[in-house]
Design brief:
It comes from Actimicrobium antarcticum. By secondary structure, the protein is an alpha/beta fold. It contains 24 helices and 30 strands. The chain has a seven-stranded mixed sheet with strand order 5-4-18-17-16-6-7. It has a six-stranded mixed β-barrel with strand order 23-27-24-26-25-30. Strands 10-9-8-12-13 form a five-stranded parallel sheet, with helices on both faces. Helix 4 packs across helix 21, helix 8 runs parallel beside helix 14 and helix 17 packs across helix 19. It starts with 6 loop residues before the first strand and ends with a strand. The protein binds iron/sulfur cluster.
Amino acid sequence: ALVVPDKQVDSVCPYCGVGCQLTYHVKDNKILHVEGRDGPANHKRLCVKGRYGFDYAHHAQRLTVPLIRRADAPKRGDFSMDPDRVMDVFREATWDEALDLVASKFIALRDTHGKKSLAGFGSAKGSNEEAYLFQKLVRTGFGSNNVDHCTRLCHASSVAALLEGIGSGAVSNPVMDVMRAEVVIVIGANPAQNHPVAATWIKNAINNGTRLIMMDPRRSDLSRLAHRFLQFKPDTDVALLNAMMHVIVHEGLVDQDFIAARTIGFEELKANVEGYSPELMAPICGIDADEIRYVARLYATSKGSMILWGMGISQHVHGTDNARCLIALALMTGQIGKPGAGLHPLRGQNNVQGASDAGLIPMMYPDYQRVDSPAAIARFEQLWGMPLDHQPGLTVVEVMNAIKAGSVRGMYIMGENPAMSDPDANHAREALAALDHLVVQDIFLTETAYLADVILPASAFPEKTGSFTNTDRLVQMGRQALAPPGQAKQDLWIIQQIASRMGLDWHYDGVGDVFEEMRLSMPSIGGMRWDRLEREQAITYPCENEGDPGQSVVFTDHFPTESKRARFVPADIIPANERPDSDYPLVLITGRQLEHWHTGSMTRRAAVLDAIEPDPVALIHPLDLVALGAAPGDVITLESRRGQVTLYARADDSSPRGAVFVPFCYYEAAINRLTNPALDPFGKIPEFKYCAIRMSIG
Ligand code: SF4
């Protein structure tokens, strides 16, 4: 018989940064199906994750009661995900017992070992309000700025370059602006897999005459539709981009008026790219000099050119340099600050933009106000009513190193899974296991939760209300459609309970109250009242005054820097930290695949998605498979200097010879055991996109 929903709830998709609006159709506290809504970013479109990836919320493995590690539990280094062993390791507790233990241990560690002995990782899957309260708890309750989240693994280098160059870490134009562009460059990104609805707008733009230039070491679905596809050698982004700038300078294609009126530092950049002629760079990046010239001319001379980029740009030890080159390209040609011309780093998680805006980063308070700026310190000390630490805190990988060094001893992790997502994951797991006190708040017994002392059962995305900011700077309402299962609680409630037990005198009458406090401290959303957001459902920032409609294209007349001008920052070639050699002759590139999201905790528990992609796979060039003596479907082992995994081989000629691509969502073949924790010195982002490996059969 036809099952009729008893309610429909409007919300947004919990997965990627495109921020598709959707409607949950619910009966008896279960989601029956999901439908795309007419939101600004999706206009009723959804991808396979948005449409079918909802039933994780009803999965039998949901955490429904607080758990405390047993005194006689197996050693924490004895890592296992066997669900049958959970109660050998943990015992059930009441909320009061668990929360009292959490707070008392944090207080004891702080008072014994100092404020910097504690750290917190929040989540880009949580709401803006959760991110804001989480960082406030760390800064005021723990007493340091040791707070970070997965933006550090994602676009931290892009943000570092954008803040330095143009004074803002967010996009200049929404994705939809590709429809107004004559030329679109997509570099180091695979939108068809990772931002699928955004990819549909790019396809629509191509159908309307926009020329797409794909630039990536790997071929992707969009490459087939591209006007030009530049399959450059891995790790040679700066060589290719500097060569393009060399052409633009030498052929007089720069926008002199824009450079004179809106920028500083051009002469230095011009001198730097002089040494990067296309002829010199062609053998380095593997792209013919004439092709570099053609693409440079096309980009520079179009009426409107957009650049969209992803983690192929950001996740390198030279990630900030890569982004500096993209910014310089836009500035020297005046391809920014108008409709259809701009810079767009495609955000990964559905709220990584908002979580960063809300201050879930160690060097900035909300709205990117530096923690070492006297004016910002004064503002937040007054707002929060207590003295604050004036030193930037530790970033994600730095926290893991500090644990191993004994200086960080307690952690609060909300909705992140560093045991799977951190580079050199064996090292990260050892670090987490070495903590005196690890508290994990999540919806499943993740690989990180298994190492915890206390596990707090939290709410899934459809079980709470909050605001979420997509890749376009669009703040949107996510609404509660379900009650959490068992004794699981909403994350905002849990954070406040810990704060209260740590002596903080907070009073929030619901999520709207938290948003209103955020608004007071964040000029960019100053005009965005909660009741307006509830009514309008989606508002773009900057929105500084009430009644302000929000601004989707920014930098139209000035950049938000002290001088109001943007700055060119030259970049030179820096090689990857670990190059292939005779012992480890192949390059490992990690990333995502369409059906699974990040560490897989949600999508691998969504029946349709798991049925499509159930097993860990490595995508290997067919000729490399032949050279190994293996066939597609064979079990192979990949090994780096840091670890090894065993998984299935899949023939895939979209990867160049000598490069192996592996998604990082499979716990049984956790590929981050192999990746290199070497950091970009500016964004402190690890080099996920390049390390040396070898492979063998079996
Ligand atoms: Fe969700 Fe992103 Fe897919 Fe849209 S494109 S439905 S936001 S995963």
